Structures are given as C-alpha cells and as structure tokens.
Amino acid sequence: MKQLSTVLRKFGFVLLSLTLFGLAHQANAQSTDPLPSWNEGKAKQAIMQFVAKVTKEGSSDFVPPAERIATFDNDGCLWSEQPMYFQLFFAIDRVKALAPQHPEWKNKEPFASLLKGDVKAALAGGEHAILEIIMATHAGMTTEEFEQIVKDWVATAKHPTRKRHYTELVYQPMLEILDYLRANDFKTFIVSGGGIEFMRPWAEAVYGIPPEQVVGSSSKTRFEIRDGKSVIVRLPELNFMNDKVGKPISINQHIGRRPIASFGNSDGDLQMLQWATSGEGARFALYVHHTDAEREWAYDRKSSIGKLDKGLDEAKKEGWTVVDMKKDWKVIYPYMLK
Amino acid sequence: MKQLSTVLRKFGFVLLSLTLFGLAHQANAQSTDPLPSWNEGKAKQAIMQFVAKVTKEGSSDFVPPAERIATFDNDGCLWSEQPMYFQLFFAIDRVKALAPQHPEWKNKEPFASLLKGDVKAALAGGEHAILEIIMATHAGMTTEEFEQIVKDWVATAKHPTRKRHYTELVYQPMLEILDYLRANDFKTFIVSGGGIEFMRPWAEAVYGIPPEQVVGSSSKTRFEIRDGKSVIVRLPELNFMNDKVGKPISINQHIGRRPIASFGNSDGDLQMLQWATSGEGARFALYVHHTDAEREWAYDRKSSIGKLDKGLDEAKKEGWTVVDMKKDWKVIYPYMLK
Asked: Do B172 and B231 touch, CB atoms closer than 8 A?
C-alpha cells in the first residue's frame, strides 16, 4: 500500500484515472459479440450499424443519450403469442379459479364453455367474449392484489404445448438487443397491446424493464381509502386500448419523445414504427417475421393473431429491417442455449 | 508510465480499483451541505433523516434504488402560482397572438374581455371560461408545433409583477431537494395538474426532469399521416384531469410503483401524499406552506389558487413535514442567491 500511495502522489490522480479509463476502454473494444444468438446477416448488420452511428460523438448522426428511446412491442416481439396471447391463458386460468364464487357462470357464455374446457366455443363470441373474460378476471381487486395474482400465475402456469413457464418463452435474440441498446445508453420501453398491469409484475426480472417503462392497454381505476390506507381499485371498464394508432398516442402521452428505434411484429405495430421513423435524424425500425414453424411458429399475412400484412409491404417500401426468424436467429428461447 | 504499469502488475487491478473507490467515497463523505438554501430546522432534518435511512444498506428501512420514486407537484411546489397559474398567462398571451385569425373573438366572451385587457372579467366565467381559453389556445396544432410555441413563450414572456421569466420563479430550495434525491439514486417525477405538454419542453433544462418523468393533465390527440410523415395533432378535448384523486391514478398508470416520497402544496396534492405514505416501509410527505408575503406570497386555507386546508389538518394528524417558507428557506428564487 505504501508503494501504491507513493505512485499516486508521483503521477497524480488524474493521470492514473486516465490510464484506468484507457484500460477499461480497451477491454470494452475487445469484448465479445453483443448479439451472439444472431446469425451474421443483413438484420444483425443493420442494428449494429445504427447503434454505432447514433453513439459516435461528433458524427452527424449522433444522438445524445437522453434522446435514445427505443420501444418494443411485447406479444410476438419479445415473447411468443401462439396459439393465443398469453394473457388470455391467464384470464382463462382465472375463470377456472374464480368459478366457485360464480355459480351463474355454469349457464352463461363464454364462461360455460370455458369451464367445460372448450376454449374454441368460448372464443367463438369474438372480441365481445374476450372482453367479457378479461373484465370478469382483471377487475374488482386492488392493483396490489392484482399484481400478486399475476406473479403467482407467472411462477406456476405453463404453456399447453411447450410445457414451459410463459416467461421462458421469451426470445433470446431480443433479450440481447435490449441489453445491447441499454449498454449503449438507450432507454428501453415496452409498448404493447397487452395489459399494462399484467406485464409490469414480471417485466423487470425478465426483460430488465422497470414498471415506469412499460406502456400497455389499461382499465379504469378508482382511488379509495380503506381502513385508513389508500388503495387503487381496478374497474371492469376499458381505459385505453394500446394498439395501432393507440401506440404513437400512448408513446407521446407516456414518454413525450419520439423513439429513434422501434421493434414490432404485426400490423398493430405499424403506426408505432411510422411514428419512430418519421422523426428527423437517424431512425431504425424492425419487424420480427415469424418464419420458423419448427422452433416457434410460422404466420404472417393471414394470421388471426399477430397478423403482419400491411406492415410487410410498408417495411419493404421504407427499407425497414425484417428479421427472418428461421434464418437470422441461432436460438429462439433462452432454454435452448448451449 | 513504466513505473505505473509495474505497480499495476504488482498489486493487481482489483486492489487498485478498491483503493480508488475508497478515495472517491471519502471525497463524497466530506462533501458540503446538500441543502444550502435551507435553514437548519425540523423540515431540513426530516428530509435528510429520511434519505439517510432509506439509503443505508443493511438497515430495516433500506429501499433499493429502483424503488426510490419521488413525485413533485409543480405549481406552488416547484415554481410560484400567483396571482394565477402561469399556464394561464401563457394561454392569455396566446389569445392575444391568435386574435388576428379570430375576428369573432371581439364579440365573444371570455375572449372579448381578455383582448380588452380585463382578465378579471374574462375569468368571471369560472372553470368554463378557463377551459374555453385553454382549448382555444392549446389545440389544433401538432405536438411538435405546440412544443415550439411553449419554448418560444418560456424564452420571452415575463411575470407581470416580478418582471422575471417564469422559469426564473422556481424555488431554489426545491431544486436542491431534486438534486439531493437524485444524488441518492432517487428517480424524480413531476405529477402536476398543469398540462403535460406545457411542462415537458422546459422541465429537463429547469428541473433536470426528462419528458418521460413528467405527468400532467392532457388533451386528447389524433395520429395522422401528413405528406408521408406521421404527426400527432392536439384536439380541443380534455383527456385526463390530473388533480386530487387523479394524481394517484395517474401515478399508478404512468409510474406503476407507489412513490416513497411525495411533495405538494395544496389540497389538490392530498391524495398523492396519502397514496405515497400508506405503502409499507419508510415513507415521506412534505407540504410547502406559503407563508412569505414579502419574498413570495402568503396563502393557505382560503385561497382560490393553491388552497391548502384539509391538507394542513391531515399533515398535522399524520406527522407530515410542513415547510414554513418564511422561516425554512434562506432564499426563494435562484436569482436571489449571493
């Protein structure tokens, strides 16, 4: 220690700091591939070139860290969405759990079919049936009670065919993109059609995205004092549907800056990608194209879930990056690693 | 440099890093008073004791950095609000600027009185009149056009009696609180009844609070494609009134975590303070009490603007911190420093 402090005095703190900075910088430059689950190709190259240019100080494309906002859809972009949105599996599990308190559901659609195990018949009622299922299962409790219900479900429920927890069905290559952007001083947001309070309880652990950076569809709520403590109660009424034109509107409301990069996978993300790319300066948009029937699912223009039709045309016209899941991704889910 | 690298090899990088960390830590502990514009007293002591305990690792009151959320009202808490909310001065200036395009205003209240310079008569119409003035001046343009209008106004307009730019009328002691909390890994948010898009254009420069951490009242908006570029247009319709029970609701919607500290000055902030303080663990609530008729303004229980009545009673009952502006603050505005 004596020798060390002599050197500190001799060379001065500043010189030493500069040297250490140099060493750290060198270590960084030698670091390994930030996107190891991506095959070399146009998609990987496009994202890396974009990040390189907006982070290069003095370049005309440089963007200050505070303005490096990136938005991600969730269903089909960060985790799978087949054979139906995972939140619907949650809702159906909740119908089963709540059925003893609702004897009337035995004779009332869509609940009757659900309780008999006939999901297809239950969902035959279309959007109206889905909304009824959501409202019956997502309202009536405090926000803190709902958070616990979601946490319990995420910890236990499994996907019917993959036999994995739903949060295991997240895309390893997209987790790498999130990490890579944050390592380059981007702030990453989820902007999803899914329920904002359905995603927040696990988004931080799974994606590294804190609650305040999760934007989604929402229910109306009511503030109440119960036994001298304040609570917020979830009401069975839609507040905001965060899909299509709803996405740029909620981005403006919630973030207040135009993202410089945006990631989606369906026509529901089209307006978000348009919003991000029509600002000034360097911009980046990416569509995940589901092309891998073997390792994940293959669907696009005619799918009832995650339809990608207009978006594919717009991506071609605008030169957006389209990920070919089958060719571009070495692995799909983290559990496939090694 | 040769000697230095010898030492680096000899002692190893880790040991050296630890030493540097120790030096930095020592420098930090020796730093000066973080709240120099606060007189010693109960209020200053309360905030500093709170921050000390929630940041002390191993303590039962320790709060991880990600959960250190602090919310601040704006009008009357971070800047002045007399003789009327500053946003209303903005709206009136806009009425004057837009009058040539609206010949019909000459014969239509509340515009006719405003254009004659009789603000009192114009506002005699109460909330309805104010809403009409706001809608006529805050809608019809894109969000980016509105941002520029606000920036131009903030850069030029002056308070009628203080003869200062409005952003000079921010409270120096509260700026110090914001800095102090952020230095202790708090995330600071504005949660104001003011317009979200009226505050965002200058909140980052003035308060160090980025747009995504500003929550406020909002108008409805519409997404449009104009000449191949996407824009968001502001509509003359209220989307959300961020006052009273609206504050905890918007905090839940926007932040998704209960704040552990909350700062306000009026009954409009009461529910926000209740929401923050009725969570588990250490909590902090503070009311700025306007007691300084000489350096600022003095008002509370009977004021039409920034009324603080129920809140004063609740603060006493709950043991919240109440700042006596006259006694607790050495200076009010930054320009009074030195």
From this structure: no
Query: How far apart are the C-alpha atoms of B332 and A132, rounded to whole Å?
Result: 54
Distance between CA A165 and CA B302 in Å, rounded? Answer: 57
Q: How far apart are the first and last CA of chain B?
A: 45
Phi, psi of A138, deg, nearest 5:
-110, 5
φ, ψ for residue B62, nearest 5 deg: -60, 135
* Residue A269 near residue A315 (C-beta atoms within 8 A): no
C-alpha–C-alpha distance, residues A154 and A197, integer Å? 13
**Chain A CA closest to residue B196:** A253
Within chain B, which residues score under 70 in pLDDT?
1-31
- The confidence score (pLDDT) of residue B30 equals 46
Minimum Cα–Cα distance from A272: chain B residue: B230
Q: How far apart are CA B167 and CA A203, in angstroms?
A: 37
C-alpha B271/C-alpha B267 separation (Å) is 8
pLDDT of residue A122: 93
- Residue B31 is predicted with a pLDDT of 64
The mean per-residue pLDDT over the stretch A177-202 comes to 98
- Rounded to 5°, angle at Cα B193 from A272 and B36: 105
> A36: number of CA atoms within 13 Å, CB side?
6
pLDDT of residue A300: 98
**pLDDT, tens digit, for every residue of B221-262?**
999 999 999 999 999 999 999 999 999 999 999 999 999 999
| Measured distance CA(B261)–CA(B144) in Å, rounded | 32
Phi-psi region of B201 (alpha: psi -120 to 50; beta: other; left: phi over 0): alpha
Q: What is the ipTM of this complex?
A: 0.90
Task: Enumerate the residues of chain A whose CB falls inside 8 A of the CB of residue B214.
Answer: 256
| pLDDT exceeds cutoff 70 at A27 | no
**Chain A residues touching residue B255 (CB < 8 angstroms):** 211-212
Instruction: Kindly determine whether residue A196 and residue B256, on different chains, have CB atoms separated by under 8 Å.
Output: yes
The token duo for B224 is: 């449009």
Backbone angles phi, psi at B305, to 5 degrees: -115, 130
CB contact under 8 A, B252 and A274: no
In the predicted model, is pLDDT for residue A176 greater than 80? yes
Half-sphere exposure of B281 (CA within 13 A, CB side): 18
Record the tokens describing residue B204, joined without a space.
Answer: 């980052």
What pLDDT digit, counting tens, does each position of B256-302 carry? 999 999 999 999 999 999 999 999 999 999 999 999 999 999 999 99
The SS3 assignment for B22 reads helix
Antiparallel, parallel or unpaired: β A321-324 and A69-72:
unpaired
Task: Determine how β-strand B187-195 pairs with β-strand B214-226.
Answer: parallel
Task: Find the closest chain B residue to A208 by CA distance.
Answer: B66
Residues in chain A within 8 Å Cβ distance of B245? 222-223
